DNA sequence: ATGGTTGTTTTACAA
């Protein structure tokens, strides 16, 4: 079973790319971020025509997440628990039946947090990460395959970016950000890409500006974090970076995990 | 070299 995460930076602007990629890559479950659309604006019919079930948690103009799946989910949770006042659409979770039980898959768009000196943005990022940790801790009690996939807006380690000095004061790489990400991992969650390769210069995002793609000036911020029950089933991962060279690309590329749940 | 780009029912802001 192929499970992917992709920040598409606007589903309407990226519809041709999304259709091409779904047709080529044939993922079973796709976690999308930054659909930048309300639920009614999502190109549902076009995606359903390719054989996918569509669940969205949209928002006008910004943010917005979705789950596309070849099999229909049994349950859907919209919004990250822990703050009823949070208006931002950054979390959707689905439960899917597999031969030996059920898997739980979340699409996560973790707050960017920049600029870090902003009185609201960076504290919001850190509190959102703590809410995610609390929710993940509860999910782990179920002892089922859990896959938390998305744009974490976190560069976990210096070798996950082209030039650590450039990112030293950025909300994606500040020590407090990385520590919060480690607290999440320390629950027992495994970074799928790092579990399957020692390769360096693996990136999932290249800025549109200053020729970042051409210079391979990228960062790795899109991650699949796996509960032990999912990590035990992980066979391979891939970062589908060829998509970044397409016409009108997103600044992120799909990151996929291949699992055997049979 | 203090630049550069993309998306959004935009005309500012987020990334």
Automatic annotation (TrEMBL):
GO molecular function: double-stranded DNA 3'-5' DNA exonuclease activity
Protein name: Exodeoxyribonuclease III
Signal peptide positions (record): none
Cofactors, names only: Mg(2+)
Keywords on record: Hydrolase, Magnesium, Metal-binding
Endonuclease/exonuclease/phosphatase domain residues: 4-252
Family of this protein: Belongs to the DNA repair enzymes AP/ExoA family.
EC number of the protein: 3.1.11.2
Class of enzymatic activity (EC top level): hydrolase
């Amino acid at each position: 079973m192929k499970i992917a995460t992709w920040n598409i930076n606007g589903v309407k602007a990226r519809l041709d790319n999304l259709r091409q990629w779904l047709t080529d890559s044939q993922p079973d479950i796709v976690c999308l971020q930054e659909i930048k659309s309300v639920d009614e604006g999502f190109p549902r019919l076009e995606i359903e025509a390719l054989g996918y079930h569509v669940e969205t948690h949209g928002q006008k103009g910004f943010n917005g997440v979705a789950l596309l799946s070849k099999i229909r989910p049994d349950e859907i949770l919209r919004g990250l628990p822990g703050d009823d006042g949070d208006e931002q659409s950054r979390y959707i979770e689905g439960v899917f039946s597999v031969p030996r039980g059920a898997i739980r898959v979340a699409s996560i768009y973790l707050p960017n947090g920049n600029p870090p000196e902003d009185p609201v943005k960076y504290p919001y990022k850190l509190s959102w990460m703590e809410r995610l940790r609390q929710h993940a801790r509860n999910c782990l009690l179920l002892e089922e395959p859990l896959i938390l996939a998305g744009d974490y807006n976190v560069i976990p380690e210096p070798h996950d970016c082209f030039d650590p000095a450039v990112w030293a004061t950025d909300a994606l790489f500040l020590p407090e950000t990385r520590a919060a990400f480690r607290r999440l991992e320390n629950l027992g969650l495994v970074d799928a890409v790092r579990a399957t390769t020692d390769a360096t210069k693996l990136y999932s995002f290249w800025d549109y500006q200053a020729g970042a793609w051409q210079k391979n000036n990228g960062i790795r911020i899109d991650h699949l974090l796996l509960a032990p029950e999912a990590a035990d089933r992980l066979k391979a991962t891939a970062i589908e970076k060829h998509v970044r060279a397409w016409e009108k690309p997103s600044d992120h590329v799909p990151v996929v995990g291949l699992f055997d749940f049979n």
